[in-house]
């Protein structure tokens, strides 16, 4: 798994249940970057789409080093502010990934923002370059991704390691075949430059933004490139820019281990827990289930896929994103442990990778890998990559190999980053609010602490809770502090704790 995303946290419970005023700063924003006048001169032409929403596209250069060359279009959607007076402007959002559709996020989740924000802001989502409807990258088809995700991602010997390397190489080659011209240009720094053009096209003098998970990384690099254009940025569930590509995955695996322990402690308090009477017994039972699926895949009543160890690990990890999903995870584990039936686990895993019932996938997986592989340098070969896997196996025995080996296609990626990006400081920016959740499975709390310190104007808000990201979980303390900051640009006191 190469995913740092919020989509599972915000929408998981629903999916599993089948179910301009005085607040605007008057300082002059950064001037138009050279050669980009025609892009910054655009005005978004909003048209009604899908009920109360409005849609638009904005043109940006594919290669910012050649603004006169090929262009692409960035897809946007907004839910207009409901208030007839007191409108502040646009609240841009990004749900994470990388690769998650910001357009779909706003369509499905915009009304989860507080009534105050809905009254005073247009809630705006966009698909970053390479994602969704914005010049999407194309890689493996549905059967190809089924093979990739079914391949043993915790190899026990050279034969299994070679098989994983072959599938990873095939993944990379398919992206080169389907999207060669776009692959070098889908990285976060370019997506952040696009954001400033979107801001101008929407008519906002400065940027107001809510970014979750990977969206914090995107927001931090936006602030670093355009510090004078920052009005208020909320970075919820932060990614630490100082981590290496494999370091991020090792630490993320540890986060899932922490979340599994928290789930186990909660599970054994219920009479419906299928994993034993103590948290230690429950965690051990999950380990045994993974070993069992490695030796003999679980049954699947939905389709022809075998529920291998990789699908089991992904299903568990997906449900750990959101505490509201824990009852579904208990049920799925009960079927797996008691009956050898992995149908519910693979159904939950499909939510993570956006696999549809007809066997096709959205482009989220392709975009996720494409952005990650060009954002940071990666190890030169599978053997070197395996050293990080060994580290992860020691510190996160259940999730380490699964999470870290998931990034192996980057070793074979045709578009290579030149160097490790300089960590953002956003010198000169207005205060930036960073929110960290203590037991976040996908973006460990230490990352939020780190990012708040790296940003010159970073302010840390801590949520003592479970699940991935904090704001949309509904904690009153987090909601009030965040809403006040977004509406007034005045952050809470650095070090405030909620929950």
Describe this structure in words.
The protein is α/β, with parallel strands linked by helices and 499 residues long. The chain has two domains: 4-13 and 40-137 and 183-242 and 421-498, Alpha/Beta hydrolase fold, catalytic domain (Rossmann fold, 3-Layer(aba) Sandwich), CATH 3.40.50; 142-178 and 245-353 and 379-412, no CATH class. The chain has helices at 7-16, 37-40, 102-109, 115-120, 142-150, 158-179, 188-201, 214-225, 245-267, 279-295, 309-320, 326-339, 343-353, 364-375, 382-395, 400-405, 445-454, 476-488, and strands at 4-5, 47-49, 53-61, 71-79, 89-94, 96-97, 121-126, 207-212, 230-236, 432-439, 458-466, 496-498. The radius of gyration is 22 Å and the shape is globular. The protein starts with a strand and ends with a strand. The relative contact order is 0.15.
Characteristics:
499 residues, alpha/beta, Rossmann fold, 43% helix
Q: Over the alpha carbons, how many angstroms does the gyration radius reach? A: 22 Å
Strand content: 5-15%
Strands of the largest sheet, in order across it?
A: 2-3-4-7-5-8-9-10-11-12
List low-confidence stretches.
Answer: 1-14, 17-28
Biggest sheet statistics: 10 strands, mixed
Spell out the CATH superfamily of the largest domain: Alpha/Beta hydrolase fold, catalytic domain
Helix content: 40-55%
Element-by-element helix/strand order: EHHEEEEEHHEHHHEHEHHHHHHHHEHEHE
Taken together, the total number of domains comes to 2
Morphology call: globular
Give the second-level CATH assignment, the architecture of the largest domain. Answer: 3-Layer(aba) Sandwich
| Average predicted confidence as pLDDT | 93
Tell me, what is the CATH class of the largest domain? Answer: Alpha Beta
CATH fold topology of the largest domain: Rossmann fold
Number of helices: 18
Distance between the termini: 30 Å
Q: Tally the beta strands.
A: 12
Give the class from helix and strand content and strand pairing: alpha/beta
Pfam family, one: Abhydrolase_4
Family: Belongs to the peptidase S33 family.
GO molecular function: hydrolase activity
InterPro entries: AB_hydrolase_fold, Pept_S33_TAP-like_C, Serine_prot/Carboxylest_S33
């Amino acid at each position: 798994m190469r995913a740092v995303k919020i989509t599972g946290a915000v929408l998981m419970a629903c999916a599993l249940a089948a179910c301009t005023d005085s607040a605007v700063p008057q300082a002059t924003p950064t001037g138009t970057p050279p050669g980009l006048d025609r892009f910054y001169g655009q005005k978004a032409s909003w048209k009604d789409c899908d009920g109360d929403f409005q849609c638009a596209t904005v043109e940006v250069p594919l290669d910012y080093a050649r603004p006169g060359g090929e262009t692409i279009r960035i897809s946007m959607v907004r839910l207009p502010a409901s208030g007839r007076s007191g409108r502040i402007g646009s609240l841009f959002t990004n749900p994470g990934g990388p690769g998650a559709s910001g357009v779909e996020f706003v369509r499905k989740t915009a009304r989860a923002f507080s009534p105050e924000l809905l009254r005073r802001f247009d809630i705006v989502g966009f698909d970053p370059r390479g994602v969704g409807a914005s010049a999407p990258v194309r890689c493996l088809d549905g059967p190809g991704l089924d093979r990739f995700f079914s391949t043993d991602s915790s190899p026990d010997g050279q034969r299994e390691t070679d098989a994983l390397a072959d599938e990873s190489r095939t993944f990379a080659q398919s992206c080169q075949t389907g999207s060669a011209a776009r692959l070098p240009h889908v990285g976060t720094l370019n997506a952040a430059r696009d954001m400033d053009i979107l801001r101008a096209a929407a008519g906002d003098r400065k940027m107001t933004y809510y970014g979750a998970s990977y969206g914090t990384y995107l927001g931090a690099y936006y602030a670093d490139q355009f510090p004078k254009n920052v009005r208020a940025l909320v970075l919820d569930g932060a990614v630490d820019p100082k981590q290496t590509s494999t370091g991020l995955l090792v630490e993320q695996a540890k986060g899932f281990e922490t979340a599994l322990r928290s789930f186990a402690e909660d599970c054994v308090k219920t009479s419906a827990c299928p994993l034993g009477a103590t948290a230690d017994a429950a965690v051990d039972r999950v380990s045994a289930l993974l070993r069992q699926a490695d030796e003999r895949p679980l049954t699947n009543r939905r389709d022809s896929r075998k529920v291998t160890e990789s699908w089991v690990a992904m299903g568990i990890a997906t449900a750990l994103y959101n505490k509201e999903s824990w009852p579904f995870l208990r049920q799925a584990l009960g079927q797996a442990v008691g009956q050898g039936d992995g149908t519910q686990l693979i159904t939950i895993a499909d939510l993570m990778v956006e696999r549809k019932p007809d066997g096709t996938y959205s482009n989220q997986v392709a975009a996720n890998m494409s952005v990650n592989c060009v954002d940071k340098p990666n190890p030169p070969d599978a053997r070197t990559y395996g050293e990080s896997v060994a580290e992860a196996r020691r510190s996160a025995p259940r999730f380490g190999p699964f999470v870290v080996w998931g990034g192996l296609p980057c070793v074979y990626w045709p578009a290579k980053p030149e160097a490790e990006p300089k960590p953002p400081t956003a010198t000169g920016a207005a205060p930036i609010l960073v929110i960290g959740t203590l037991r976040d499975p996908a973006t460990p709390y230490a990352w939020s602490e780190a990012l708040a310190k790296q940003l010159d104007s970073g302010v840390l808000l801590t949520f003592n809770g479970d699940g991935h990201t904090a704001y949309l979980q509904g904690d009153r303390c987090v909601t009030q502090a965040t809403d006040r900051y977004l509406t007034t640009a005045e952050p809470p006191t650095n070090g405030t704790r909620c929950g």
